[in-house]
Design a protein that fits this description.
Keywords: FAD, Flavoprotein
Family: Belongs to the FAD-binding oxidoreductase/transferase type 4 family.
Shape: globular
Oligomer: single chain
Radius of gyration: 23 Å
GO biological process, one term: respiratory electron transport chain
Number of strands: 19
Cofactor: FAD
Number of helices: 17
Protein name: Hydroxyacid dehydrogenase
Structural class: alpha+beta
Mean pLDDT: 96
Length: about 475
C-alpha cells in the first residue's frame, strides 16, 4: 500500500488509530470461527463518524477497498479480508458512545461500535428493555447486528434487528454522511433507506449510529421444558400457546433428542429436566412487565396438550436457577457441536406451517445420500428459523470435508427453496453463501441487488467479495 495513504490515514485517526503490526492485526484478519483468514496493510480505527467519513474519502481517492468490521463475530465470513493484502479493515471498535436514552420515546441512540450487552445494560439502567439477545452479545456490536440483520432468541415477540431500528446514520462509499437518526415510528416521506442498509453486510456503506427501540422492562418470567413425539407436535403446541398466551410468548425453541444428548455429553453440568426419551424438545418462555401470574398462565396452557397426548411431558421452572439450567441446555448446542465433530451448518428459514414436512423430507434425504451422519437440528421455531446441521467426524480430511459440505448444502438448500424458504435466516450471506445465492435467487432479484450496489458503490470498494 502507498505509504502516503497510511500517513494521511494516521493524520485522520491518529497513530493509535492504526494497527500496522502483523501480530496485532491477527484478531482482525481472521474470523472467530477460523474459517476465513486474510491479510491487510492496515486496520483503521476511527473514533467518530467524522473520522469514518474522512477515511472513506481517502480510500475512494486512492481506489482502496474497505472491509467494515464490528465485533468480528459473524458466522459467514462477512467481516474478513481476502488474502490479497490490498483491503483496508475499518474497525468501529473505538466508537462506543451511548449518545442518548429517551425513556419517554422508548429509544436509545448509540454508536455502531457499542457492544450489544452494553446497549442492554444502558436500557436496563433506564428502566427499559432492549430485547435483542444473542450468544455473542458480550462481543458483537450493534453495527454488526444491523449489517447482518441479526435474529436471536426473542424474534418471535420483538422481531429481527431490522424491526428494532428506527433510524440510522451511514457513511456512504464516497464519504458523504446520511444522517437518518430519527426516532420516529411513522415517517412516510419516501424510500426506506434505513431498511436498505440493514442486512447489506457493509457492501453499500458503513453504519455508524442507530436509533433503537426500547420496551418496558420484563419483571416476570415463566420458563418450561417440554418433551414431544415429533416436530408436528412441537409446531401444534406453538400454535396453541400463541392463542392462549398472546404476546407474552417471548421464546419458543426446539431441539431434537440428539441435540440434548450431545449437550449432556459434552457440556459440564447440563442435564435434561425430563425423564424418559423424547424425539423432540421445546424450551418455552413467557415474559411480561407485570411480575406475577405467568406461571399460572403457562401451567394450564400446557396441561391441555399433556392430557390430549400432544406432548409427552413438561417441567416448569420454579426458580431462576432452574430457568437458567434450561437455557444452558439449549445454548450449549453450539459448544457441544465443536467438541463432538465438524458441523456443516445450515441457517435456514421456512414458513412455520412447512417446518415439520421439511424436517421429515430433509432427514430422509440426508440419510439416503449421506448415510450414518448425525443431524443436529435445533432452532427458533417460533419464527421459522432452523439450524439444521450435519455433524462430520473431527478427523475428517479437509478435502473430504469440502466435498461433503458442498453435497450437503445442495441436498438441504434445494429442499428449503422448494418449500418456499431461505438459505440464510440470521447469519447473513458473507462469503459462505455468496456463490449459492446465484442458484437460489431469481434473475430479477439478483439484477435489482446489483443495480443498487452499482448505484451506491460504483467503484466496488465496499466489502468486495461479500454477499454479491
Amino acid at each position: 500500500m502507498d505509504s502516503e495513504l497510511i500517513r494521511r490515514l494516521a493524520h485522520v485517526v491518529g497513530d493509535d488509530g492504526l494497527v500496522l503490526d502483523e501480530a496485532a492485526q491477527a484478531p482482525y484478519v481472521e474470523d472467530w470461527l477460523r474459517k476465513w483468514r486474510g491479510r491487510t496493510p492496515v486496520v483503521v480505527r476511527p473514533r467518530n463518524t467524522t473520522e469514518v467519513a474522512a477515511v472513506m474519502r481517502l480510500c475512494r481517492q486512492n481506489g482502496t477497498p474497505v472491509v467494515p468490521q464490528g465485533g468480528n463475530t459473524g458466522m459467514s465470513g462477512g467481516a474478513a479480508p481476502d488474502d490479497s493484502g490490498a483491503q483496508v479493515i475499518l474497525s468501529l471498535n473505538r466508537m462506543k458512545r451511548i449518545r442518548e436514552v429517551d425513556a419517554v420515546n422508548n429509544t436509545i441512540t448509540v454508536d455502531a461500535g457499542v457492544l450489544l450487552a452494553d446497549v442492554q445494560d444502558a436500557a436496563r439502567d433506564a428502566g427499559r428493555h432492549f430485547p435483542l439477545s444473542l450468544g455473542a452479545e458480550g462481543s458483537c456490536t450493534i453495527g454488526g447486528n444491523l449489517a447482518t440483520n441479526a435474529g436471536g432468541t426473542a424474534v418471535l415477540r420483538y422481531g429481527n434487528t431490522r424491526d428494532l431500528a428506527l433510524g440510522l446514520e451511514v457513511v456512504l462509499p464516497d464519504g458523504r454522511v446520511w444522517s437518518g437518526l430519527r426516532g420516529l415510528r411513522k415517517d412516510n416521506t419516501g424510500y426506506d433507506l434505513r431498511g436498505l442498509f440493514i442486512g447489506s453486510e457493509g457492501t453499500l456503506g458503513i453504519i455508524t449510529g442507530a436509533v433503537l427501540k426500547l420496551y418496558p422492562r420484563p419483571l416476570g418470567r415463566a420458563t418450561a421444558w417440554v418433551g414431544a413425539p415429533s416436530p408436528d407436535a412441537v409446531v401444534s403446541l406453538l400454535t396453541r400457546l400463541q392463542a392462549r398466551c398472546g404476546e407474552r410468548l417471548t421464546a419458543f425453541e426446539m431441539m431434537s433428542a440428539y441435540c440434548v444428548t450431545l449437550v449432556s455429553r459434552h457440556v459440564s453440568g447440563a442435564a435434561c429436566p425430563l425423564a424418559g426419551a423424547h424425539a423432540y424438545h421445546a424450551l418455552i418462555e413467557l415474559s411480561d412487565a407485570v411480575p406475577e401470574g405467568l406461571a399460572e398462565l403457562l401451567e394450564p396452557a400446557l396441561a391441555g396438550p399433556l392430557e390430549e397426548g400432544l406432548i409427552a411431558d413438561a417441567a416448569i421452572a420454579t426458580n431462576e436457577s432452574q430457568a437458567k439450567a434450561m437455557w444452558r441446555l439449549r445454548e450449549g448446542i453450539s459448544q457441544a457441536q465443536v467438541r463432538a465433530g465438524k458441523a456443516v451448518k445450515h441457517d435456514i428459514a421456512l414458513p412455520i406451517s412447512r417446518l415439520a414436512a421439511f424436517i421429515k423430507e430433509a432427514d430422509a434425504a440426508v440419510e439416503r445420500e449421506f448415510p450414518g451422519l448425525p443431524i443436529v437440528n435445533f432452532g427458533h421455531v417460533g419464527d421459522g428459523n432452523l439450524h439444521y446441521n450435519v455433524l462430520l467426524p473431527l478427523d475428517v480430511p479437509h478435502e473430504e470435508y469440502v466435498q461433503l459440505t458442498a453435497g450437503l448444502n445442495r441436498c438441504v438448500h434445494d429442499l428449503v427453496v422448494q418449500r418456499g424458504g431461505s438459505i440464510s435466516a440470521e447469519h447473513g450471506v458473507g462469503q459462505l453463501r455468496r456463490d449459492e445465492l446465484r442458484r437460489y435467487k431469481s434473475t430479477v432479484e439478483m439484477d435489482l441487488m446489483l443495480m443498487i450496489k452499482r448505484a451506491l458503490d460504483p467503484d466496488q470498494l465496499m466489502n468486495p467479495g461479500k454477499l454479491l
